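Regression test attached.
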Amino acid sequence: MTGKYEGGAFMQAVRSFALSAIVFSAAYAALAIAPTELKQGDIQRIFYFHVPSGMNALLAFTVACGASIYFLIKRNVKADWLAASCMEVGVAFGSVVLITGPIWGKPVWGVYWKWDARLTSTFVLLVLGLCYLLLRGLIEDPERRSVVSAVFCIFAFLDAPLVYFSNRIFRTLHPKPVILGDSDSGLAPPIARVFLYCFIVLAILMIALIWERYRLEELRHEVAELRAESDSA
Amino acid sequence: MQNLNSLIAAYAAAWLIFFGYHYTVARRLSQLREEVEKLKQSIGKRSR
Amino acid sequence: MNAPRAALAILGKELRAEFRSFELLTSTLVFVLIVVFVFSFAFDPSAAESRRFGPGLLWIALLFAGSLMLQPCFSRERVNDTLGGLRLAPIAPVAILAGKILANFLFLTLVEAALLPIFGVLYNIPLVPVAGQLALIMLMGTVGVATIGTVFSAIASHARMRELLLPLLLLPALAPVLLASTELTAGILADPPELRTAWLVIVGAFDIMFLTATWLFGEYLLEE
C-alpha cells in the first residue's frame, strides 16, 4: 500500500503549485478575458466560479451516493473511503456556492439571501452533507461507521430531488436554467468558452482534492493496522 | 468596474475555501506519513 | 414465520411495551402542547394570523415531537441488547424495521389525534368541516415522518451523542414533508378551501421513495 503516491514534501509542493496555477489561469480567464455581461455588469463574473462549484459539488455527492450503494453491496471498504472523501470535498465546494451566491445577490437582488427554490435546496443539501460528516465523526467502530454512514448517504441523496421540487413549486426567483434550459436559453459563445474552461479547472481541482482526501483515509487505515501490529508484537 | 468589492470578496472567499481545505488535507497527510514511518521503525527494531 | 406476521408481532411487542406505562405518549403530548403554548406567547397571533401561521406551527410541533419520540425506539433496545435477541429470531430483518415503523406511525397518529382538537380550539381554527381531508394529509405526512424517523433512529443509535444527533439528521431530511404538509394544511384551511394536489404528490413520492429505500437498505442497519 505504501510507495505509490509518495514522494514527500517536494512532490506535494509541485502538485500544490500546479493546482494553484490552473486555478489562477481560470480566474484570469473569468476576470479579464470574458466579456462584460450587458445587464449585470462585472458582478456576473462571480458566476464563473459560483455555477461550476455547484455543478461539481452535485457531481461529488452523486459519486458519494453511488460509492455508498456499491459499498453496501460489495463490502469493499475502499468504496466507503471514496464516499467519505467525495462528501467532504462536496461540502467544501457547496460552501463556496453558498458564500459566493449571497455576495452576488446583494447588488443584483438587493438582498443577500432569499428563500428561493435553489438556494433553499442547496442549503438543505449542504446541511445534510455536514450531518453525514458529523455522523462519521461520532461512530467509533470503523466497520459500523462505514455501513451506517453509507445508509445515511443514500437517504440524504434521495432527499435532494424532493427538496428541490418541493421548493420549485413553492417559490422561485432564480435565473431560469441557462444551461440545458428553455430553447431561448444558452450562453453567448465567448462566455460559454470561459465557463467551460472554469468548469474543467474546478473539476480537476475537485478530483485532486478527492484523491488527496482518499489517500488520507488510506493512510489512516494503514496507521490503525500498524498500531495493531505493534501492539501484538 | 462597478461592484468591485463584491467581486473581490467572492473570489477571495472561494480561494480561501479551496486552498484552505487543500492545506488542511495536506497537513493531515504529512502528519499521518510521519506516524506511519515512526510505527514502521518501531516495529522494525523490535523484530530485529 | 413470514415477514408480515413477524412485523405484526414486533408491532404487538412495541405496543405492549408502550401501553404498560404510556411514558412516551404522555411526554410527547405534553411536549407538543408546550410548543403550541410557547408559540402563542412569543407571537400573540390574531385570528387571521392564526390561520396564516397555524399550519406551519402545527407541523413544526409535530416534527419536533417526532424527533424526540423516535429517539428511544432503538436506543432503548441497547440497554439489555434486546435487539440482539430480535436479530437471532428466524425473521427477516426488514420485518423488525417494519414493525417499528408501524408502531411509531401509530404513536404519532395518537399524538396528532389528541393534539388537533386542542390546537383547533386554542387557535380558533374550525377543523371539523375539513376533518376528512385533514386526516388524509396527516396520515400521509405521518407515514413519511415515521419511516425516515425510525431509520434515522437506528442510525443515530450507533453513534455517540445520539440524543442530540437524531434531530440534527431528521429535521433537514424532513424538509420536503414539512413544506408540503404545511402547504396542504394551509390549503384546506384557506378561504375557499382547496386541496393542492401537487403537494400531495410530493408527500406521496416522499413516502414511497423512503419506504422503498428502507426495504432495500434498512436491514444493513441491524447487522452486528
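Expected vs. actual: identical. DSSP finds ten helices and no strands in chain C.
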